[in-house]
Specification:
Layout lengths: L2 H13 L10 H20 L8 H37 L11 H57 L4 E6 L4 E4 L5 E4 L4 E5 H9 L3 E8 L1
Antiparallel strand pairs: 1-4, 1-5, 2-3
Length: about 220
């Protein structure tokens, strides 16, 4: 491996939407490459002071710095793609990419596990809240159903809806009574209305009680 190889990998990684295949030993190879450069520099520095080549030392330092920078760019770009792939796999929409380098396999596996655990926790919480909400609705409906018969019995005990006989002094037109009947209130007409319908009309002075007796 050399700097030129790394630059080619960097360019291809930048231009691809998916991961380019790398050797399992990619990051190990990079580490060995950098280690060799550092050893070369150390050997030069341990020689006679007069024989130290300042230009060579500077070249090695620049190469080490450049290699580190290029590898960081490659890694960061690949991590973005790995995270996307892990998200899909965690949701059951993908599987592990065969282009992962050795050290990236563990990263991918950990991301998938983390995302799956987080996804399950959140969805279970949402599901639990929805279940509780549904149960509350069921219980509310059951309570309402239990109360309804009692309400009907109370109404039966009270008897039919009370009526008031009124005379229409100002035409009102059709109204819908609480007893389910429709009444056409024409001026001058005398009619028996449910108390609940008659009272607001009496207050509005559009009808009058004729006999003052509630039936």
């Amino acid at each position: 491996m050399n700097l030129e190889d790394l630059r080619e990998i960097q360019i291809e990684e930048r231009t691809r939407s998916d991961l380019q295949p790398l050797l399992d030993s990619f990051y190990v190879d990079v580490s060995e490459y950098l280690q060799n450069l550092r050893v070369e520099k150390e050997n030069i520095l341990q020689g006679d002071v007069d024989s130290v080549d300042a230009k060579t030392i500077r070249r090695i330092d620049d190469e080490i710095k450049t290699v580190v920078g290029v590898v960081e760019v490659i890694y960061d770009r690949r991590v973005g793609k790995i995270l996307k792939g892990a998200s899909l796999t965690a949701a059951g929409l993908g599987e592990r990419d065969g282009s992962l380098a050795g050290e990236e396999v563990g990263l991918f596996r950990n991301l998938v596990e983390l995302l799956q655990n987080n996804r399950n926790e959140i969805l279970q919480r949402v599901s639990s809240e929805e279940k509780n909400h549904t149960q509350q609705e069921v219980e509310t409906n059951q309570i309402s159903e239990q109360k309804s018969p009692q309400k009907n019995m109370d109404q039966a005990e009270e008897g039919e809806v009370s009526n008031i006989t009124i005379k229409v002094v100002q035409e009102v037109g059709e109204i819908y009574g609480v007893d389910g009947n429709t009444y056409d209130l024409k001026e001058g007409e005398i009619i028996s209305l449910p108390k609940e319908n008659a009272e607001p009309l009496i207050k509005a002075k559009v009808v009058q009680i004729t006999d003052g007796v509630e039936q």
